[in-house]
Design goal:
Blueprint (H helix, E strand, L loop, with lengths): L4 E2 L2 E4 L8 H12 L3 H7 L4 H14 L7 H13 L5 H16 L11 H10 L3 E5 L4 H9 L12 E3 L10 H11 L6 E5 L2 H9 L3 E5 L15 E3 L7 E2 L3
Parallel strand pairs: 1-8, 2-3, 2-5, 3-4, 5-6, 6-7
Amino acid sequence: MTAPTAARWVVIDIEGTVTPTSQVHRVLYDYARPRLGPWIDAHPHDPDVEAAVAAVRDEAGLDADADTAAIVAVLHQWMDADRKATPLKTLQGLIWQQGYADKQLRTDLFGDVVGALLQFREQGAGLAVFSSGSVAAQIASFSHTGDGDLRHLFTHHFDTVNAGPKRVADSYRTMTDVLGVAPEAILFASDVPAELDAAAEAGWQTVGLARPGEPFADTDFGAHRAVTTFDDISIEVPA
């Protein structure tokens, strides 16, 4: 293991970093796909649903009176392309939130994750999440895991709405302001090199997760330190 990284905050990605990609692409996507239309029709006056539907129409160039079937067709296309579209993530998050509440969904984390996060907390570091999934989906995901309810571990949740796109440096600058420390006091862990590039541009420290069997396992992480497990990440919280 290399020398500890001096950090007051550890910010983690979710998909491919703390959970297998299959957790999202198979379990969660498959759960949300058939429920998108019924959810839209069942919540016509929910402000979040109304805003998401309007955004889908706008982004897809649909008529203002496009029906639910047309909206869902676009959402399914975006899911097939793994497009990180905010209105899609909003609707998925609402559906997943209900699924977790009904105990129909469970998040399975990589075996090295919880022990490492508990260690970081014990050392005095703050923990936050930055994911393309909505804040609601993040909180729901950590509420029902194979390791129990882990919501208490995290102080902040960031998504593409309250922070910005994950591959844009300004998103990390926005989060830096919220976390209230110098950018170099923040360590970001992700499996996507482009996200690490953006974080580094904003002055953050970075570590890449090259987990065997995951999509970015054999990726060149360039200047970013890469590890295969959280067991290889150690921090030191400055006095």
